[in-house]
Specification:
Blueprint lengths: L2 H12 L15 H9 L4 E6 L9 H5 L5 E7 L3 H11 L8 E3 L2 H5 L6 E4 L3 H13 L3 E4 L7 H14 L3 E3 L7 H11 L6 E9 L19 H5 L26 H18 L6 E7 L13 E8 L3 E8 L11 E7 L2 E6 L2 E6 L4 E6 L14 H15 L9 H20 L3 E2 L10 H4 L15
Parallel strand pairs: 1-2, 1-4, 2-3, 4-5, 5-6, 7-10
Antiparallel strand pairs: 7-11, 8-9, 8-15, 9-10, 11-12, 12-13, 13-14
Length: 448
């Protein structure tokens, strides 16, 4: 940890504004004292980021069978952490303290795990800071903002021997696990192609203009590892996704992560050999959206396997039926997979099996959550406790799928196709490799 990060942490810890959800603020309540004496296997967890995704954690934190205490609720926006604290008051175990700076929680030796649901530019840095402090991490997608961060997280995970479960929760869907196992056993013959798709009808977004920092927002800390700039209207909330590459990963990283992961999993491939992308901003020409909103990417793998990514952020036409999912083509049939289950067709297109999920995972709703997320979190808790030795989406697996989103974004940004080393994932094109990593604010650079 760099000296200015350490200094910042010391100041943040001393000046932390604590509001307890379950009892006392910084002292130890009788309830906390009894927990320490009588239940040493209780997990102490932290919410890092209280935006739209945080609600996906509520079920598993409130479930008494998981034996979890919520120790801290952290967000750089005062209203967001207070909203979560108010919502969970009396519903969770533990004296959850509301804080502004995650580093105050990382200093607490009792904390076991961090749920990182921050903006994309904070994902990997927040994860490696947590591991440095001895914590396990549930890391929302995208696990990384660029390819280099995947390499860093894998190296640090091995160094600190902590679990990182990436939040591509369909890896914990019983239905998806079942059908992909069947695909690997040859149910539709030799698989050769997958189409991952996503359609949404996102609206016009404001043009970001200089504005006062909103009340209650720590803009300095919101930027964190990203290079500094003055605040512009509406940046801190959801629209940072579309306001430039300093913070977001466009729709590929935002949602394509899920479907591309299923595609790579089903085809049982690692890195592609060639990447080609057609992408553009097609809608609301004069609004504040700075990235593509429409993309068709093609990833060619060894053995003539292909994954396509059909992305429509602002055109709600459902080309393939539902708004999101993955289609797997084999020599003897086709499988259609989404969060509602799967369908199996023979080579002639006849429906052979229609398996509907009993789950309730959200599709394109902001934030989402549901049965897949619950199962994914339970798997994370079980791994920490030693009840299972296998995470459903360990970071080395998640980072490899995440590379497909990074390839798509890089190809769009440099405006050309490129070849990839199929053995290590490195890009041969020099211009593209300039985007392998990113610039960090001085003092926030990764230490590997």
């Amino acid at each position: 940890m760099s000296s200015n990060r350490r200094d910042f942490l010391r100041k943040a810890t001393v000046g932390v504004a604590g509001v307890a959800v379950g009892g006392s603020v910084m002292g130890m309540s009788a309830k906390s004292y009894a927990r320490i004496l009588g239940a040493n296997d209780r997990l102490q967890v932290v919410f890092m980021g209280c935006g739209r995704r945080v609600g996906a954690y509520y079920n598993m934190i409130q479930d008494k069978n998981n034996n979890v205490d919520l120790a801290y609720i952290c967000d750089v926006m005062k209203s967001q952490r207070e909203k979560v604290g108010k919502h969970l008051a009396g519903k969770v175990s533990g004296d959850a303290t509301l804080i502004n700076d995650i580093r105050a929680a990382l200093e607490d030796l009792k904390v076991d795990a961090v749920f990182n649901a921050t903006p994309d530019h904070w994902h990997a840095p927040g994860a490696w800071m947590a591991m440095e402090a001895g914590k396990h991490v549930y890391l929302e997608k995208p696990g990384t903002q660029n390819p280099r961060e995947g390499e860093i997280l894998i190296a640090l995970q091995k160094k600190y021997n902590k679990f990182i479960q990436m939040g591509n929760q369909q890896r914990s869907s019983k239905d998806t696990i079942t059908i992909i196992n069947d695909i690997h056993k040859g149910r539709i013959g030799n698989v050769y192609r997958a189409v991952a798709f996503y359609s949404n009808n996102r609206a016009e977004v404001p043009v970001p203009k200089p504005a006062p920092v909103p009340e209650g927002l720590d803009w300095e800390l919101w930027q964190g590892p990203a290079p500094r700039e003055d605040y512009r209207f509406n940046t801190w909330d959801y629209n940072w996704h579309w306001y430039g590459w300093k913070w977001g990963t466009a729709e590929s990283g935002n949602n394509g992560t899920h479907e591309l992961d299923v595609a790579r999993w089903a085809l049982d491939v690692d890195y592609p050999e060639f990447v080609d992308v057609q992408g553009a901003k097609r809608h609301y020409a004069n609004d504040g959206w700075e990235m593509y909103d429409t993309m068709y990417a093609t990833f060619r793998f060894p053995e003539d396997k292909v994954i396509a990514w059909d992305c429509k952020s602002r055109n709600g036409y459902q080309t393939y039926g539902p708004e999101r999912g993955t289609i797997i083509y084999g020599t003897e049939g086709t499988v259609y997979i989404n969060r509602d289950g799967y369908k199996v067709y023979d080579r002639g297109g006849k429906l052979l099996s229609d398996n509907k999920s009993n789950g309730n995972e959200a599709g394109t709703a902001l934030g989402g959550g549901g049965s897949m997320s619950d199962a994914h979190i339970r798997n994370f808790f079980d791994a920490i406790r030693g009840k299972t030795s296998v995470l459903n989406s360990p970071i080395e697996m998640g980072a490899k799928s995440q590379m497909l989103t990074h390839y798509a974004n890089i190809a769009f940004r440099v405006g050309k196709s490129f070849e990839v080393d199929k053995d290590n994932g490195r890009i041969y094109d020099r211009d593209a490799m300039k985007l392998w990593g990113r610039e960090y604010e001085k003092g926030w650079e990764p230490k590997v």
